Amino acid sequence: MHDSARPGPPAPTAQARGSGLTLALVSAFAFGGSGPAAKPLIEAGLEPLHVTWLRVAGAALVLLPLAWRHRGLLRERPGLLAGFGLLAVAGVQACYFAAISRIPVGVALLIEYLAPALVLGWVRFVQRRPVTRAAGAGVVLAVGGLACVVRVWSGLTLDALGLLLALGAACCQVGYFVLSDHGADGKDGRRPSDPMGVIAYGLLSGALVLTVVARPWTMNWAVLGGSSSMNGTSVPAWLLLAWIVLVATVAAYLTGVVSVRRLSPQVAGVVACLEAVIATVLAWVLLGEHLAVVQLLGGAVVLLGAFIAQSSAPKDAGAEPIASGAGAAAGDEARLKDVPAP
Fold this sequence. Notes:
With 342 residues, this protein is an all-alpha fold. It contains 15 helices and two strands. The protein is globular, with a radius of gyration of 20 Å.
């Protein structure tokens, strides 16, 4: 149990917010680069889910030394590690790829990036903490701009299951932002969880789940030994895979988690909307997928929304969130509290 009148965490300093914003932008760029690198591999003959498995399993292998170094987390925070792997890694990827098999990619992407609004809803109505008006306005602008970037009105099909799967991806993305912040301040009586250890074990558990779903033994492994075409330019498949693993996964997750802890889940969530803008621009430059004027305007609106959200620190939550007595199991590692980052 936790006290019913514990003071809220202090607001982040300007230096911490500045470095957090920089890391959030780096994370958005890294995540945004996954699509343009993965598309040539898919066009060369790999299934999207197999590319996802390669991405997660490869990153988990790279971070095995970190997992061993932080093996104490298995005993200290098993629920956090399992939750991060299931939601932030496997859940987002599996739900998103299942959704785009039934509804347009643009629609699925927009629904997935409703996550910042859902984060605000969690903070305001579940934890009963105040949120800044700037963050709320930033979410509205970012989601509206994102609708223009992905041109959500093009080819809309109202497949109920596809929409639910995309919403599932959004909910899992909420888990990424909130779980990234969970355990950062050590106020639960234990030492703060190291973000690199959380990432390492999250990717390991996510890779195990995706192995069952993707069945990599059925993959066309020969594709990785050849080359893929990127807008007419031949690129070694292994080089694209290395980018996806090292930059779009390892670097993206590490910088993303640290940025959440230096900003807040709600602010970092809005900045993460830039991923869609970055992905679209990179697809334009690398794959020759040209942007329409409305997409350029939408990208500007997303940038404006992200700037508004991060320009005002989250309110100092002097009022403690009300504990949900009957609904919270004692010792539950996945209880999400103290959302604003220190």
